[in-house]
Amino acid sequence: GETCSALLLFISVMTMFMSGVVAIFEYDLKKIIALSTLSQLGMMMFSISLGLYELAFFHLLTHALFKALLFLCAGILIHGVGNTQDIRSFGGLSLNFPLVTVCMNLANLSLCGVPFLAGFYSKDLIVELACQYSWGVFILCMMFICLSLTVLYSVRLTYLSFVGVYSGGPSISVCESDHSLIGPVAILSFVSLISGPILSWLSFPAPVLIFLPVFLKWAALLF
Fold first, then answer.
1. With contact defined as beta carbons under 8 Å apart, do 149 and 111 qualify?
2. GO molecular-function annotation terms (predicted)?
3. 146, HSE (Cβ side, Cα atoms, 13 Å)
4. Which of 40, 35, 42, 34 lies closest to 14, judged by CA?
5. What kind and span of H or E run contains 84?
6. How far is CA 153 from CA 36, 83, 103, 204, in A?
7. 135 and 76 Cβ atoms separated by less than 8 Å
8. How far apart are the C-alpha atoms of 132 and 210, rounded to whole Å?
């Protein structure tokens, strides 16, 4: 049992690390989101290797909601700029896709674990409980590095897509008047705002008590 969980722990942390590093150097929009999914799967396996099964499932549910939102927003962007997935040919899309920009940034922030969005409730709990288990400094450092990699590729994705100068083809079709595209995005945005607290109230009968020194308590937020 011990060796199995130690092995799973090591593999999952390495998965989180490698997928995060690859996502930073990737230019394909869908590949970045897929690699971030891989990184979050590493997070779930990490939580399973610590014996936090309910928590891993809780993270799976919340993550499914905002990752679906990310993929839908990415699809709308790809459709809008003329079927290109290369984020080097995006830029300044917040002017043409205001709603999709808001929703995609919401999903990205939720993925990064910004307080009181859906991802925060599951991710932060996993991180803090992992800090409470004494698995050694290396695993903790790797975990925090993986957290900061998540933030890095999310910020890079946002910057290359929505900030800066548009560098793509001559035509952008604005899809935001199409309700069949925007409806699911709006619903998922609302759900990924409220699903964190609601699911945590439903699945954990009592609040989790976590005792940590101050710098570890702040570490996730700082990274």
1. no
2. NADH dehydrogenase (ubiquinone) activity; NADH dehydrogenase activity
3. 26
4. 42
5. none
6. 8, 22, 17, 31
7. no
8. 7
Q: How far apart are the first and last CA of the chain?
A: 32
d(CA 184, CA 81): 20
Going by the DSSP 8-state scheme, the letter that residue 88 receives in this structure is G
- For 85, other C-beta atoms within 10 Å of its C-beta total 16
- pLDDT for 109 beyond 80: yes
Amino acid occupying residue 64:
A
Q: Cα 166 from chain centroid?
A: 25
Q: Which of 22, 17, 32 is nearest to 158 (CA)?
A: 32
Considering 132-136, 170-174, 184-188, the range whose residues carry the highest mean pLDDT is 184-188
Whether the per-residue pLDDT at 63 is higher than 90: the answer is: yes
H/E run at residue 129: helix 118-132
Q: Which of these, 100, 57, 104, 106, lies nearest to 80 by C-alpha position?
A: 100
The pLDDT value recorded for residue 7 is 94
Structure tokens at 45: 């396996």
Instruction: Give this prediction's pTM.
Output: 0.91
- Euclidean distance between CA atoms 63 and 44, whole angstroms: 10
Q: Which residues contact 186 (CB under 8 A, 6 or more apart)?
A: 99, 103
H or E element that contains 158: helix 137-162
Q: Whole-angstrom Cα distance, residue 34 to residue 26?
A: 11
Q: What is the largest CA-CA distance in the chain?
A: 59
